[in-house]
Amino acid sequence: MYKTIITDLDGTLLNTNHKVDDFTKETLVQLYNRGVNIILATGRSYYDAYRVKLDLGLDLPMITSNGATLFDSDNKELFRYNLDSNVCEYILNLDYKQFGKDIILNTICEEKWLLHDKIDKGHRLNEWVEESWKYIYSGKNDINTKGVSKFFFFGNHDELVNLQKHLQEKFGDRFNSAFTLPFCYEVFSKNASKGIALKKIAELKGFNLDEAVAFGDGFNDVEMLREVKKGYVMSNASEELKKFLTDIEEAGYNKDSAVAKKIKELFKI
């Protein structure tokens, strides 16, 4: 029997409107009341993930910013791994438009969402904006390079792949990165990953990952899915990811509340 559930948010637990539907919420509340450990693990920053936690109405630990930060169920910060300041300085001074004129750069710095390129109202980035979580237009010279938890670039996938190759050639293993979506490339600390953070919270809380199940839809979920007894990749994940995770079973589509349906099946509720 599983005793712990770890789930990504966007593309996984949340529906296509980036919300928790009532069926999913009711299912998680049932499991929480039965004493099942539930952990949210996301690329979102703390305040962005906290809105989901509030919507659920449950006191849950959170792995945020792709594992760069870990928060206890009472919102106490357990650890933080910010990005190497030298990597930060390079990215902030990089002409990333050379890889694609439509690439835009975002920074999560000291839990603020900073956008460094002007966009129009129809840009897909605006789908992520909510009343309590909005980007702030910012220049690059005012960034505290010691307080950056991650950068994320939006753009054409092939162009972002070329950007990824450039950064990897420049810095090697001095940073970690992943495509959280085909059009979103994220750069974060070499010490940060959802898998590392998951092992840390398991150690702190004393639960066994051999009794855990996890759900995800992005390359930033790979380590997490492999750390647990049973990992599930979402059917709406990219074909590239599903081909990479040939040994991982598909859970179904986030638009169909697949996570809730699967855990109802696993926990027989």
UniProtKB/TrEMBL annotation:
Question: Which GO-annotated molecular functions does the record name?
Answer: metal ion binding; phosphatase activity
**UniProt cross-references to Pfam families, sorted A to Z:** Hydrolase_3
CDD domains, alphabetized: HAD_Pase (cd07516)
Enumerate the UniProt keywords alphabetically: Hydrolase, Magnesium, Metal-binding
- Its domain of life reads Bacteria
PROSITE patterns, alphabetized: COF_2 (PS01229)
Write down the required cofactor(s).
Mg(2+)
Instruction: Return the similarity comment.
Output: Belongs to the HAD-like hydrolase superfamily. Cof family.
Q: What protein is this chain from? A: Haloacid dehalogenase
Which species is the source of this protein? Sneathia vaginalis
